[in-house]
Amino acid sequence: MKKVIAFLCNWCSYAGADLAGVSRFQYPPITRTIRVPCSGRVNPLYLFKALYEGADAVWVSGCHPGDCHYQTGNYYARRRFAIFNALMEYVGFEKGRVFFSWISASEGKKFAETVKHIKEEVEKLPPRQKFLREND
Amino acid sequence: MIERIREEARKAFEEGKIEILIGFGRGTLRATPIFIEKKEDVDKLIWDDTCWINLATYLRRFRGKKTGIVAKGCDARSVVALIAEKQLKREDVYIIGVPCQGMKNEKGEEFLSCRYCEYPTPPVYDVLVGEKREGKKENYPDVSEFESMPPEKRWEFFSEEAKKCIRCYACREACPMCYCEECFVDSLDPRWLEPGLSLSSLQFWHLVRAYHQAGRCSDCGACERACPMDVKILYLTRKLNKEVRELFGFVTGLDPEALPPLGTYSTEDKEEFIL
Ligand code: SF4
Ligand code: SF4
Ligand code: SF4
Ligand code: FES
Question: Which of A15, A60, B123, B273 has the greatest number of C-beta atoms within 10 Å?
């Protein structure tokens, strides 16, 4: 079973996951969720670390632009993630292991669909080989 | 040039503008940083094409004192970046700007950052020594070339370079922007990165160090030159410099009032990558 570390904003995507559950939308059990107060709370270091520790993918999901509980956290996050993507792609790390989304508390369906999408993308790839912690 | 630098330095001491001056003096292999506390010593200052250390790295040591700095384009941009990050006060720093002729290695070859340098003349200064020099407008051809390689080749290059690293952190010490009280590699709680020289741990170090420079690096090249193992690292920071300019229209170190690009945002930022 693939493992995706999901950093979900408490105010939207985490509640979206809840709604997906309550509404009985099926989605594959690949996510390991870390609830964060805001997508802006996600230090890019967490993403490096999760991949390094062996996650098949990392996923950050926050409130839609304009809807952040703290007004602007997701705008800062958006910049950080753009740079994260650029750097990882530049060094040749495979695409399809880093995901970002905006999912509101009322988008249970989008939540379930996004998980499915991530699963499909990750399953296209061979097992992780690059940038994995080696046991010494 | 040397005479004019000394003269400006002397004047700054006499006029009480500075209590201490960071400049270059004669070293054994190359110009070396010197810290001058009285005007009698300004004759120790030199200038040549081995003055490649970024002197802005030493500025924070003298916080609270009126500090002078002999700054080429990239040093001055680092000073500006430090001011923008509230590490220094503009009024505490006196910049003796030197339009830079380009720096060279022991073999007399010009460094990469200098070859493509866009700001040989300090964009911000208190006094400028010599005529302004025009920068080049090449827009990171080396980065574009790297980008045009297939991903596997890029990963191979990244791995081969990272592999040479011994985690001495000389690159960090050389950089004016690596001023964290505790670097993430030294943190024990949380422990982001264990010690050791496994390839992936070296890659971790190189990725995060580069990431931390996004929008903050003046492309002085001092980090790469400080490396005892000849590890290539500038291609990473140069990529992010290019990226920050393309995505956010930002160039580091031009305006002390401008917020660093990752410390601000625009509602118009691109987001095609977001689901
Ligand atoms: S990362 Fe390297 S090139 Fe950039 S400012 Fe620091 S020392 Fe200079
Ligand atoms: S690598 Fe990052 S954490 Fe370490 S000193 Fe530099 S900026 Fe700070
Ligand atoms: S100076 Fe070179 S060897 Fe030392 S930590 Fe930096 S890249 Fe590694
Ligand atoms: S509170 Fe949800 S992204 Fe900021």
Answer: A60
Query: Does residue B7 sit in the same domain as residue B36?
Result: yes
User: Do residue B214 and residue A93 have CB atoms under 8 angstroms apart?
Assistant: no
Give the angle A51-A55-A60 at the CA atoms, nearest 5°: 75
Q: What is the pLDDT of residues A87-96, one digit of tens each?
A: 999 999 999 9
Domain boundary among B93, B128, B163: B128
Ordered structural domains, chain A, with CATH: 4-135 (3.40.50)
Q: Above 70 in pLDDT, residue A120?
A: yes
Q: Which two tokens stand for residue A126?
A: 């061979």
Which residue's alpha carbon is at the smallest distance from atom 7 of ligand 2? Answer: B178
Is residue B207 in some structural domain? Answer: yes
Same domain, B255 and B155: yes
Task: Give the mean pLDDT of A1-28.
Answer: 94
Does residue B270 sit within a domain? no
Residue B222 in any domain: the answer is yes
End-to-end CA gap in chain A: 25
HEC sequence for A18-41: HHHHHCCCCCCCCEEEEEECCHHH
- Domain of B121 in residue numbering reads as 2-128
pTM, full prediction: 0.95
Which is the closest atom of ligand 4 to the Cα of A72?
A: 4
CA of B162 to the centre of ligand 3 (A): 9
Going by pLDDT thresholds of 50, 70 and 90, the confidence category of residue A136 is: low
Task: Verify that B233 and B180 share a domain, yes or no.
Answer: yes
Q: Which helix (H) or strand (E) holds B247?
A: helix B234-248
Q: Which helix (H) or strand (E) holds A100?
A: strand A98-102
